[in-house]
Design goal:
The structure holds two protein chains of two kinds.
Chain A: H1 2-10, H2 13-44, H3 46-49, E1 56-59, H4 75-81, E2 86-100, E3 106-114, E4 126-129, E5 139-143, H5 144-148, E6 168-171, E7 174-182, E8 193-197, H6 198-204, E9 214-219, H7 225-236, E10 239-242, H8 243-256, H9 260-289, H10 291-299, H11 304-337, H12 348-375
Parallel strand pairs in A: 3-8, 5-7
Antiparallel strand pairs in A: 1-9, 1-10, 2-3, 2-6, 2-9, 4-7, 5-8, 6-7
Helix pairs in contact in A: 1-11, 2-9, 2-11, 2-12, 9-12, 11-12
Chain B: E1 11-22, E2 29-40, E3 44-48, H1 55-62, E4 70-75, E5 78-79, H2 85-95, E6 96-99, H3 111-121, H4 126-139, H5 155-167, E7 173-177, H6 185-201, E8 205-209, E9 221-226, E10 229-235, H7 238-245
Parallel strand pairs in B: 3-8, 3-9, 6-7, 7-8
Antiparallel strand pairs in B: 1-2, 1-4, 4-5, 9-10
Helix pairs in contact in B: 3-4, 3-5, 5-6
The chains are: A alpha+beta, B alpha/beta.
Family (chain B): Belongs to the ABC transporter superfamily. Macrolide exporter (TC 3.A.1.122) family.
GO molecular function, one term (chain B): ATP binding
Keywords (chain B): ATP-binding, Cell inner membrane, Cell membrane, Membrane, Nucleotide-binding, Translocase, Transport
Chain lengths: 384, 248
């Protein structure tokens, strides 16, 4: 009977394809929107996650997330170094800078300054060149995606030759030489990320009085991080967080203090409602169109439970195919945008969530659609 | 009481004082008023009478798709009042075949799949069910069309498929609601011919509701109803015997 149930649905081509298309759209949007959101979220914390050797981040107490720079006095670095339990502490600059492109177009970029001696805080992955080349005169390292993307575009959006090692660009009207390309993704706002040394930041941003954004701290082995955090707060008045705390703080900022989560959530919810409504309505109509035949089956001895199982199977099979198509399209989208400016992070949780949503939708639709069948009296088949 | 001709002791359906009403209070409409009827195995009974006289209500009760209010209705020896809903589902599944006025073949299934349905409901495997469906379709002259869709057939052919579906699981009772009303006279004759040949051969009881006087000659017994009671019961016309003897 179950095979016949599937045949009944599949042979109703128009409605069947309509249901599949609606469910595919629902699955696609339920996965794609969260994947982009998660991609953006991971970029929001990429700076913190990509510096593995650091135990504590020290900053102005008013800082809310990793790109929120509230400059400190350079003297604070030495005060932190003096706290018991600190093995080393290095300066880190986080800010923005205007890049002038060869065609005269300007592009706002994220600008990081890392410790001149150790290069701690530098990009986690180099695509071209070496991080030590930052010692070269006017040296900067640009993210590879932007070097062939937004930094290689004219004002009208036309593409020109990508930037590479040896290319030059203007930062704040000063010449900068690209000595390397890093593999980090652009930030949440898809702005290029440029690294240089902390002292060279003073050259490019000479008008800024204070440049120290964060102090990166390594703890001595066996030291209680909570005690050092407490001491830093007590003796310097600065806030200190472990990597995990600062990462969570940055994520929470984007989750709860901006409209990004709401926008993506609303988008996914509306897609679910629209796609789900179309699929449910189409399937419900299919069931109503076949009500007479379900009545015949009921008269011939099909129990209400069997009929519900047939209807549920029809909808669940359509749900499974729609889910497969939707996730397939999202995966293809992910492959296409990989290494691009679009943030995208499709993980098992998102796929599982989309599957759960489609499952709920399918079961709900099956229950809804089976109601008229359940209420149908078998004697109705003799009423013409 | 309307007894079987020839005094047959084999009773497939036994109704005594059968009553059924629809609606409640002042809107209550009686459909059957204390009806008595016996139908034997191997007997083709035709119910005739004006619309609203209770014919369809009677076959609905006999087919266990509708509950009666009072009286006795014993089908294949089982008192329907004592059966649970699940028992009635089982009774219909195993022992009742249905032929409808509008054929009611599932349009998206092939003829073989449509005919297989009663067997599948009875737990027969798909391969066996399809083979038996093909056999009965062959017997009804539609063996080459087993994989066609109902929409590709004429009305007469569709009703033959409906008969195949009603008989494929060898039910003891077959109820037919206006089986020829959508067919021309010649096709109607063919359909009744087939029903007699295939259904009665295995000693089934056939109950047919009809307004079509042309087919009355096929009946063993014609029962006329009016206002929820049986007003007349007569044996079939002599032509019936001729028609039966002329069966191929």
């Amino acid at each position: 009977m179950f095979r016949l149930a599937l045949t009944m649905l599949i042979n109703e081509r128009g409605k069947y394809l309509g249901i599949i298309a609606a469910l595919s759209f629902t699955a696609l949007m339920m996965a794609q929107q969260p994947a982009i959101f998660l991609g953006m979220l991971s970029r929001a914390t990429a700076l913190i996650d990509d510096i593995p050797s650091v135990d504590l981040w020290v900053m102005d107490p008013n800082v809310q997330y990793s790109d929120d720079s509230k400059p400190l006095q350079d003297a604070q670095l030495y005060r932190v170094k003096g706290i018991a339990g600190v093995e080393w502490a290095v300066p880190f600059f986080s800010g923005s800078i205007q890049a002038r492109l060869p065609d005269g177009n300007f592009r706002n970029c994220i600008f990081y300054g890392i410790d001149d001696a150790t290069f701690i805080g530098g990009p986690a992955k180099m695509v071209e060149g070496r991080i030590t080349d930052l010692r070269l005169s006017d040296g900067v390292i640009v993210d590879a995606v932007s070097a062939r993307g937004v930094l290689a575009q004219t004002a009208t959006g036309e593409q020109r030759a990508p930037l590479g090692v040896g290319s030059t660009m203007e930062l704040n009207d000063l010449r900068a030489s690209i000595v390397g390309l890093h593999g980090g993704a652009p930030n949440v706002q898809s702005q290029p990320i440029i690294y240089t040394t902390y002292n060279r930041v003073k050259f490019f941003k000479s008008s800024d009085r204070k440049l120290l954004s964060f102090i990166l701290v390594k703890l001595q082995p066996g030291v209680d991080a909570a005690k050092v955090v407490h001491d830093i707060r007590r003796y310097t008045g600065l806030a200190a967080y472990t990597k995990a705390e600062f990462s969570a703080m940055s994520s929470n900022y984007f989750l709860f203090r901006t409209g990004i989560f709401l926008n993506f959530g609303t988008s996914a919810l509306i897609s679910f409602l629209i796609g789900g409504s179309i699929a449910a309505q189409t399937f419900y109509n299919f069931t109503l169109d076949h009500l007479r035949y379900f009545g015949v089956l009921k008269a011939m001895g099909a129990s209400s439970r069997l009929l519900f199982a047939m209807i549920a199977l029809q909808m669940l099979s359509a749900g499974a195919i729609g889910f497969g198509v939707g996730i397939g399209v999202v995966t293809f989208f992910g492959v296409v945008v990989q290494g691009n400016t679009i943030a995208f992070n499709l993980n098992y949780w998102i796929v599982g969530g989309a599957a759960f949503a489609i499952l709920l939708l399918s079961l709900g639709t099956a229950v809804l659609s089976s109601r008229p069948v359940r209420r149908l009296e078998p004697a109705a088949v003799f009423r013409g | 009481m309307t007894a079987m001709p020839g005094g047959s002791q084999e009773v497939a359906v036994q109704c005594r004082g059968l009553t059924k009403s629809f609606g409640a209070g002042e809107a209550r409409v009686p459909a059957l008023r204390g009806l008595d009827l016996d139908i034997g195995y191997g007997e083709m009974v035709m119910l005739v009478g004006p619309s609203g006289c209770g014919k369809t209500t009677l076959i609905s009760i006999i087919a266990a798709v509708l509950d009666h209010d009072a009286g006795l209705c014993r089908v294949l020896g089982q008192d329907l009042k004592t059966l649970t809903a699940a028992d009635k589902v089982l009774l219909r599944r195993k022992a009742v075949g249905f032929v409808f006025q509008a054929f009611n073949l599932i349009p998206t299934l092939t003829l073989a799949d449509n005919v297989s349905v009663p067997l599948l409901l009875n737990g027969v495997g798909r391969t066996v069910a399809r083979r038996r469906a093909a056999e009965i379709l062959e017997r009804l002259g539609l063996g080459t069309r087993a994989e066609a869709l109902p929409s590709e057939l004429s009305g007469g052919q569709q009703q033959r498929v409906a008969i195949a579906r009603a008989l494929v699981h060898s039910p003891r009772i077959v109820v037919c609601d206006e089986p020829t009303s959508a067919l021309d006279a010649r096709t109607g004759d063919t359909v009744l011919h087939l029903l007699r040949e295939v259904a009665l051969q295995e000693n089934r009881a056939l109950v047919i509701v009809t307004h079509d006087n042309r087919i009355l000659k096929y009946a063993d017994r014609i029962i006329e109803m009016s206002d929820g009671v049986i007003t007349q019961s007569a044996a079939g016309q002599p032509a019936v015997a001729d028609a039966r003897s002329n069966l191929p």
